């Protein structure tokens, strides 16, 4: 997806936290709770208009910036930011999940839900408020939230501070559900953006695939998976991978997600892995481990594309050098190509070389063959 080689490791997917740790910021939800709600750095949204949904989406982004630009400035610029605070959501992203639910009724009949990449926790808040609305529901419903970062507690939400690229995290989720599969998995995961769009898209795609991998461990047949996706140039590749596992895959853009952002959400309904599929986390790109024994993979876990050798196998070997005098003793004589190139890019260089015009301060007088025009441009090139 990108022309640049980058080693994608779970560590890279963890940039979101390392960045904040590096710069000594408090975990987002703590900052939200402890610091006044002030605006993020001036122009933050404009600097990175395409990377909405990253850590800046939470309401704590400007805690360190003080009141330099006025408390109400961000409120004016971003209605969802303001509403999120008024309605008590930890991040404006809450509205994205609420609006997705309005369209797809995601929460209908859900008893076990997983929120991947959950911090600071606005999606978990939505799950908690929606799924546990009635008293009896509050007892039956289980919500598990996973993030690399610690998150302030939420009613009815079990938290795992862990990495979604690890199989141990999948096992921990299943343990909390007492062996039962989840009805719904949501993932709003985002690594911290680098600003290099190809790389950002690539890392986001890898995070989505990691979310899909862990989902295949925990989701029930027919269950729903919702995840953030960057609609970059290779997005169709991701759609086709998701289509292998779900009956219906749609890409949705909630109103609260900025139009200037390439962020969207895939809503994948009707989980139906290929028959015989064994959930695994072995994405060699993520793990960088090439010692997986692919021969051990069977059925739909192993895709074999047929390889066919065509033509008479006793025919000439295209990698071998043969003598000019072939068998049968026929005299060799050079035959020119049937159709030489009509205007090859090296034509000018051949002309210069042939006429001894290359790397000379002054071109020697040269004789032109009959009908051959001297190109004044070539002449000046040779002189300069
Ligand atoms: C945009 S925030 C999520 C916001 C959240 N949905 C909410 O509404 O508050 C993205 C989160 O992804 C988390 N993340 C990134 N890579 C991760 C990984 N490999 N495992 C777990 N969490 C990860 C980051 O720590 C960050 O908190």
TrEMBL record:
It is found in: Cytoplasm; Nucleus. It is an enzyme of class 2 (transferase). Residues 27-74, 360-384 are annotated as: Disordered. One of its GO terms (molecular function) is tRNA (guanosine(34)-2'-O)-methyltransferase activity. InterPro entries: RNA_methyltr_E_TRM7, RNA_methyltr_RlmE, RNA_MeTrfase_FtsJ_dom, rRNA-MeTfrase_E, SAM-dependent_MTases_sf. GO terms for biological process: cytoplasmic translation; tRNA nucleoside ribose methylation. Its EC number is 2.1.1.205. Keywords: Cytoplasm, Methyltransferase, S-adenosyl-L-methionine, Transferase, tRNA processing. Coiled coil: none annotated. Residues 29-41 have a biased composition (Low complexity). Its main location: cytoplasm. The active site is at residue 228. Belongs to the class I-like SAM-binding methyltransferase superfamily. RNA methyltransferase RlmE family. TRM7 subfamily. Interacts with WDR6; the interaction is direct, and required for 2'-O-methylation of position 34 in substrate tRNAs. This is Putative tRNA (cytidine(32)/guanosine(34)-2'-O)-methyltransferase. It comes from Leptobrachium leishanense.
């Amino acid at each position: 997806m990108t022309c640049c080689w980058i080693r994608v490791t779970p560590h890279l997917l963890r940039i979101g936290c390392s960045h904040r740790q590096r710069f000594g910021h408090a975990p987002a939800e703590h900052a939200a709770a402890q610091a006044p709600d002030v605006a993020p750095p001036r122009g933050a949204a404009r600097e990175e208009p395409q990377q909405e949904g990253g850590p800046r989406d939470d309401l704590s982004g400007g805690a360190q910036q003080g009141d330099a630009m006025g408390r109400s400035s961000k409120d004016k610029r971003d209605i969802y930011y303001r509403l999120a605070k008024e309605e008590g959501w930890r991040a404006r992203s809450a509205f994205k999940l609420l609006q997705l639910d309005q369209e797809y009724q995601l929460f209908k009949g859900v008893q076990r839900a997983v929120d991947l990449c959950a911090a600071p926790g606005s999606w978990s808040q939505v799950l908690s408020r929606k799924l546990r609305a009635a008293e009896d529901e509050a007892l039956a419903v289980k919500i598990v939230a996973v993030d690399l970062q610690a998150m302030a507690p939420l009613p009815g939400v079990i938290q795992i501070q862990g990495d979604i690229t690890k199989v141990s995290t999948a096992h921990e989720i299943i343990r909390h559900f007492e062996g039962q599969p989840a009805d719904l998995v949501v993932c709003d995961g985002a690594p911290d953006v680098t600003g290099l769009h190809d790389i950002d898209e690539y890392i986001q795609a890898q995070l989505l695939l990691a979310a899909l991998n862990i989902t295949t461990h925990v989701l029930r047949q027919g269950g729903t998976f919702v995840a953030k996706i960057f609609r970059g140039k290779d997005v169709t590749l991701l759609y086709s991978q998701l289509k292998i596992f779900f009956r219906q895959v749609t890409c949705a853009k909630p109103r609260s997600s900025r139009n200037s952002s390439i962020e969207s959400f895939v809503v994948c309904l009707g989980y139906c892995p290929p028959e015989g599929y064994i959930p695994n986390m072995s994405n060699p790109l993520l793990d960088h481990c090439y010692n997986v024994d692919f021969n051990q993979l069977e059925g739909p876990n192993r895709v074999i594309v047929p390889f066919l050798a065509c033509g008479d196998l006793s025919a000439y070997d295209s990698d071998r050098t043969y003598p000019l005098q072939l068998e049968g003793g026929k005299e060799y004589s050079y035959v020119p190509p049937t159709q030489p190139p009509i205007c090859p890019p090296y034509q000018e260089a051949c002309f210069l070389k042939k006429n001894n015009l290359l790397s000379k301060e002054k071109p020697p007088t040269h004789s032109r063959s009959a009908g051959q025009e001297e190109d004044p441009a070539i002449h000046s090139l040779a002189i300069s």
